[in-house]
Amino acid sequence: MFKPLLAAFLAAASLTACTTTSASTAPVAPPIPIAAPAEVRAPVTILISIDGFHPDYLKRGVTPVLSRLAAEGVTGPMRPSFPSKTFPNHWTLVTGLRPDRHGIVGNRMEDPADPKTVFTMASDNPAWWSAAEPIWVAAEKAGVRTATQFWPGSNVPLGDGVRPSDWQQYNQAITTTQRVNGILDWLRRPAEIRPKLLTLYFEAVDSAGHAYGPDSPQVNAAAADVDAAVGALVEGLTALGQPANLVVVADHGMAATSTSRVVALDKLVDASFYRVVEAGPYASLTPLPGREAAVEKALIAPHEHMQCWRKGELPARLHYGRNARVPAILCLAETGWQVLPTTPAEPRRGGAHGYDNMAPEMEALFIANGPAFARGGTVPAFDNVDVYPLLRDLIGLPQAPGVDGSDTVFRSARAR
Ligand code: AMP
Ligand code: ZN
Ligand code: ZN
User: Fold this and answer.
1) What stretch(es) of the chain map to CATH 3.30.1360.180?
2) Of 133, 254, 306, 310, which residue is most buried, by most CB within 10 angstroms?
3) How is domain 44-254+356-413 classified at the CATH fold level?
4) Is residue 170 within 6 Å of ligand 1 at its C-beta?
C-alpha cells in the first residue's frame, strides 16, 4: 500500500517541479490529487473461541498457526468453570462470573420462576440472560464499538436493548472462511463504523470430538481446518495493516467416552420418580412431588463411577448449586463415564465434556498474541473468569467491581 502512494507523491512532486521551472513557456498543469497517507491503525481486540479445543491438540503437529501464535505470544493452562459445557462457559468468558452467578447454569435449563419454558441453546429470551452484563454491552455503553461473528448470547438484546453494533444469528452453515471474511470485512470499513472488539466462533473441533473422541483423526482434521482459518485471519489483518490482540480460547476440553462406561439412572431408582433436566458427564434431575425422599435415598449414597449431591451440598470448589435454575440433585460421573437415563441401545464411542472442571481432560486452550502481550510468555494455571478482566484491559475499560475473576495473572505477560 505504501509503495504506490509514494510513487504518486513523487510523480506529483516532479510534475510540480517541471511546471515551476518552465512556467513562462508551458501552460500550467492542473494539480494532481495526492492520496491521503495510509491510516495508522490502533490495535483491535479479537476474541476467538475454538469450541472443545484441548491445549494438547497444539502438540499434534496439525496446527502450525496456533502453535506459532502460542510460541510467540502467551499461553497457560485455563480451567473452565463448572459445568464444563458450552453455554455456561462462553457466558463466563464474556462476563467474568461463574455460571451460578450469571444464570446460564447449563446448556438446557428449567427455571422455577417460569416452569412452562425450557432453555435450550436456541433460547434468545433476554430473561434467561439478563443476570450478567457481557463485555460487548459494557463496551458499547462506553462508546467502544463491537461486532460478533457468533458468540452465545450475542444475539440477545440486554438492558435497554443493547446488542453488539454488528452481530450475526448463529448458523452452522456459515463456513469458517465466511466467518473470517466477515471479520475482515468489518475491519475494512471506515474508522467511524469499524469495530474495536470482535468475537469469532468455531464449533468444528467440538463436533468432531463428540462424534469420534478427542484422539481421533477427525479431531486432528478439524483442528487443522480451524488453524488454517485463523491463518487466513492473521494474513488478512497483515494485508490490512491492522494490528490485533488475539485472545484465542476454548470453553472446555474433551474426554473419550464409551457406552461401556455408563451409569443408568433407571437401574438405581424408578424412572417415574424424577425428571432428568440434563444427562451425560453429569445428570441433573428434579424429583417429582412426593418422591423426593425415595430419589434422595437411592442417589445420595455411594456409587461406582458417580457421585450425587443435593444442590446445596455440592463441593465448594465447584461454585455451583445456589442458583434457582440448578435442579435439586446433581450426579457427576467419573471422567470418561456418563450418567444417562437408561442403558444405551447401541454401542458407541465418542467424546463428552461437562465433567469436574478441575479434570485435566477439561482444560481449555488459551493463547494471547499481539502488541499488548510479551513474546513467549507463560502464565500459571488460572480460571476462565479471568478472561473478562483481561478483555476490559485490552479495550481500555476500567475493571468492573464484583466479578469473580481478575487480571492479576496476566500482568507479567503483558508487553513492556
Ligand atoms: P455442547 O453441546 O456443549 O457441545 O455445545 C456445542 C454446540 O453449541 C455446537 O455444536 C454449536 O452447534 C452450538 N452453539 C454454539 N454457539 C451457538 C449459538 N450462538 N447459538 C446456538 N447454538 C450454538
Ligand atoms: Zn463447547
Ligand atoms: Zn461439545
Assistant:
1) 260-347
2) 254
3) Alkaline Phosphatase, subunit A (3.40.720)
4) yes
